[in-house]
Amino acid sequence: MRQRSPETWRQIRDSAVGLMAERGFDAVSVDDIVAEAGISRRTYFNYFAGKESVLFDPDPEDPLLWAELIAARPAGEPLWTALHQLIRAYTTAAAERMIRQRLVLRASPELAACSRKVCDRFWDAVRAWASQRNADSTELQLDLLINTAQTVLNTVLPRWDVDTGIAGLHRLIDEGFTLLQSPEWTTS
Amino acid sequence: MRQRSPETWRQIRDSAVGLMAERGFDAVSVDDIVAEAGISRRTYFNYFAGKESVLFDPDPEDPLLWAELIAARPAGEPLWTALHQLIRAYTTAAAERMIRQRLVLRASPELAACSRKVCDRFWDAVRAWASQRNADSTELQLDLLINTAQTVLNTVLPRWDVDTGIAGLHRLIDEGFTLLQSPEWTTS
DNA sequence: GCGCGGCGTGCACTGAGTGCAAGTTAGATG
DNA sequence: CATCTAACTTGCACTCAGTGCACGCCGCGC
């Protein structure tokens, strides 16, 4: 997986997403993608490990963005609140990306299962940060909290009407977080 | 996908799981499986949609088991408690299966991502039941609660040392559920 | 004996993914 | 200017997953 050129990377991904949003995931072969992108089949696999990777791999510069978002969290903030705000910030920053992905997923519902791992790399970064920050908590506690936050996002995403924009998504996210932190959520 | 014979089904699955626990998922081809099971390649795909299906598809009689477990829940029980008890009952009933799956996942860590969908069909059944039972709640509320319960299980499973048996798994499950329903869980 | 339907199988084909070796280009060095 | 090298790209050949189709076998009712 030796790639140096972010332009080629974008070129491939944009071609792929374009075709897939139009025809659906299954109806687009890797050959279609490389023809559209003007590269060879072999080069595709030098950039992406598989066919889904072109949808779910993070942008090359994403890790830096994540680091900024994470660094922006104030020190004393409760972890749950920090996760809530991180998701808001993340979805704001990655707005066009999320919208593009939704379009593809709308055209290819069979990918719904894979869609959970959309932001897995992001969550890994969050996990690393949290375990340093809250060194007093157990790994299990932190993982539970983070996975639950991730679940809120994943639960809410399929209900998101792309036409309502990021504001609409934020309303859903807030609703999810609020529901889970209301005192009586376990007694319904 | 026309299959009538549960014996053949078990035969294929047992052959596959045996080989995979031994060599790892990637090192076992479908041809290996069908050779071991004594059937043709084409028949394999009449029973299972893909290579992973042989690991993650439910047993033919599982839906009946799930229905029993679900029917056993008392009427007034809070949904969160019901989900907790359902998971305990499910893992008890599917003990050997879960242990087998852990063995394969131990041999093939690359499947960790897929392992989340281990019991997806079970959760679908739970979802259907809950939306009838708690018709007053919104779909979003129910999905959040159920997905969170599912997350507890998925968070806890990788930490389970198979040698501690189902009792050890239940300790982890209880710990997860208790953590999330403790009043101060959002303020760490 | 005859049709019929369910199931298993062989065959041929598409498409994903990989290892290897050769080609290309750009920059560093003499 | 010649050339060496390292990074990147490419073509080729191969394995394996997955599918459509048609045929064969067997048990069943008539």
From TrEMBL, chains A, B:
Annotated DNA-binding residue span(s): 29-48
HTH tetR-type domain segment(s): 6-66
Entry-linked InterPro entries: Homeodomain-like_sf, HTH-type_TetR-like_transc_reg, HTH_TetR
Protein name: TetR family transcriptional regulator
GO MF terms, alphabetically ordered: DNA-binding transcription factor activity; transcription cis-regulatory region binding
Superkingdom, natural source: Bacteria
Keywords: DNA-binding, Transcription, Transcription regulation
Signal peptide (from-to): none
High-level lineage: Bacteria, Bacillati, Actinomycetota, Actinomycetes, Micromonosporales
Record has Transcription regulation as a keyword: yes
